[in-house]
Amino acid sequence: LSRLLQRLLSARRSLEICLFAFSSPQLGRAVQLLHRRGVRVRVVTDAQYMGLRGSQISLLRHAGIQVRHDQESGYMHHKFAIVDRRMVITGSLNWTTQAIQNNRENLLVMEDAEYVKPFVDEFERIWEQYNPVNYSFF
């Protein structure tokens, strides 16, 4: 947790987060702190998970952070964050207290542009796909 927090808090310009599950209060506070510091924070998450008890998503939205979610069947199951478009953090870890404290999880941190760019491209693709103006309700 401390190493993940250290990398997230290194953001100066932007933080893009694409997560299935986000309920860790410590990570939620860190993301809100970055937002208050003026870092552009955008979050993509799974619609079914974001409404569950303990989810940080409503707190992030209430803080003014932009959040988008899927609208289709199946899960938005990605688990990655992009710091300043120069570092990607990815792996099996959902950002939950359970996962951090009890599970066997992995995280990989990469700063090589060759590996970061595909994650940036995927985030932007999903961000546009989940734009609320594209939602259909029928």
UniProtKB/TrEMBL annotation:
SMART domains: PLDc. It holds the Pfam family PLDc_2. It comes from the Eukaryota. One of its GO terms (biological process) is meiotic cell cycle. Keywords: Hydrolase, Lipid degradation, Lipid metabolism, Meiosis. It catalyses: a cardiolipin + H2O = a 1,2-diacyl-sn-glycero-3-phospho-(1'-sn-glycerol) + a 1,2-diacyl-sn-glycero-3-phosphate + H(+). InterPro entries: PLD-like_dom (IPR025202), PLD_domain (IPR051406), PLipase_D/transphosphatidylase (IPR001736). Residues 72-99 form the PLD phosphodiesterase domain. GO terms for cellular component: mitochondrion. CDD domains: PLDc_vPLD6_like. This is Mitochondrial cardiolipin hydrolase. It comes from Balaeniceps rex. The lineage of its organism: Eukaryota, Metazoa, Chordata, Craniata, Vertebrata. The gene is Pld6.
